Amino acid sequence: MSSDFPELTNDRVLRLCRGEEVDRTPIWIMRQAGRYLSEFREYRKKHEFFEICRNPEHACEVTMQPLRRFDLDASIIFSDIMVIPQAMEMECVMVPGKGPTFTSPLDAPEDLDKINLSPDVNKVLQYVYDAITLTRKTIGGKQPLFGFVGAPWTLMAYMVEGGGSKTYSKAKKWLYQFPEASEKLLDALTNVCIDFLVGQARAGAQVLQVFESHADALSPELFHKFTLKLLKKIATQVKAKLGKDAPPVSIFCKGGHFMNKEFVDSEYDIIQVDWTISREQILELKSKVVQGNLDPCQLYAPKEEIQKAAREMLKKFEGVRHIANLGHGIYPDTDPEHLRTYIDTVHEETQKTQA
Ligand code: CP3
């Protein structure tokens, strides 16, 4: 299958994962396709969010938009973490100004009987695979393509809350009040994540990322009791199922400082970190590739400040195999030219001149 794809000419991200030298620090941006780009906003006027996700030509087009503008070293397939709850037969719509919203969130354990805990993702989410295959061919080897999933706890949090939340108190209530039902749901989500990541890799994804975006809601006790073993299982099983063809796998626990070092001893190849961690904490992760971590709000500053901040960030990662990125997704009101300054500064500062 993979022989049908164009040869990868920019392999910096993959080289880092293999422990090989790179000529400059690679960079890509979480949510690099999105509303901060006028061409995306134009596209969205004509097409509903999940319509774009479900149509491979549309998903490919919006994935390509940031690649046409910027000198990026990786791409990420346009999709959303909510495609898994949808595959489990929960209705989720994108409400402008509010974000993803579930029409019937999970209220009590009995509600688990109303959803499909073991969907055939290879059938229901085939459209994501088709989007990946088409996009990888369209990129033509100029960048590797990331596939991704939302991690089980993050997905559960949305499925119970019905959307975003400041406290995640409803979802955490499940962990304290219904631990068995919570485990049942988290286990089911874990299995779906594994199958879906394996399918994405087979469809052409060259790196896989697991987004635990609501890690910050968990105490160390809850993290250890409910999610760490599942996150580790995802990487282990994906690698075992794919064997020698397994791509590198990345984990992002947003706001979960104490969690990052738990993945040093795991099958994950890349640990994505947010902007709140120190150089000391980054150095603890040194045996892995570390990805991150400029504060997305830093891009609101004047360009000279962005250049300075980019240099300071690079210093924090000195001696570490580093993929530059933001510490979370780029905000919709960011000036794309400020992003360009960040990307170009990372390249200029780290470019090794040929001897
Ligand atoms: O370029 C890319 O990064 C690829 C596409 C991508 C999107 N969502 C597109 C998107 C990826 C990787 C995601 C992942 C995702 N989705 C996460 C994990 C990463 C993170 O940010 O923590 C999460 C938590 C979601 C759920 C989600 N989807 C939220 C909370 C929102 C609302 C955001 C907002 O500011 O309104 C979305 C919507 C969404 N996903 C948009 C895009 C481009 C914007 C919605 C729109 O166009 O109307």
From TrEMBL:
<keyword id="KW-0210">Decarboxylase</keyword>
<comment type="similarity">
    <text>Belongs to the uroporphyrinogen decarboxylase family.</text>
</comment>
<comment type="function">
    <text>Catalyzes the sequential decarboxylation of the four acetate side chains of uroporphyrinogen to form coproporphyrinogen and participates in the fifth step in the heme biosynthetic pathway. Isomer I or isomer III of uroporphyrinogen may serve as substrate, but only coproporphyrinogen III can ultimately be converted to heme. In vitro also decarboxylates pentacarboxylate porphyrinogen I.</text>
</comment>
<protein>
    <recommendedName>
        <fullName>Uroporphyrinogen decarboxylase</fullName>
        <ecNumber>4.1.1.37</ecNumber>
    </recommendedName>
</protein>
<dbReference type="InterPro" id="IPR006361">
    <property type="entry name" value="Uroporphyrinogen_deCO2ase_HemE"/>
</dbReference>
<feature type="domain" description="Uroporphyrinogen decarboxylase (URO-D)">
    <location>
        <begin position="146"/>
        <end position="162"/>
    </location>
</feature>
<comment type="pathway">
    <text>Porphyrin-containing compound metabolism; protoporphyrin-IX biosynthesis; coproporphyrinogen-III from 5-aminolevulinate: step 4/4.</text>
</comment>
<dbReference type="InterPro" id="IPR000257">
    <property type="entry name" value="Uroporphyrinogen_deCOase"/>
</dbReference>
<dbReference type="Pfam" id="PF01208">
    <property type="entry name" value="URO-D"/>
</dbReference>
<keyword id="KW-0456">Lyase</keyword>
<dbReference type="InterPro" id="IPR038071">
    <property type="entry name" value="UROD/MetE-like_sf"/>
</dbReference>
<feature type="domain" description="Uroporphyrinogen decarboxylase (URO-D)">
    <location>
        <begin position="26"/>
        <end position="35"/>
    </location>
</feature>
<keyword id="KW-0627">Porphyrin biosynthesis</keyword>
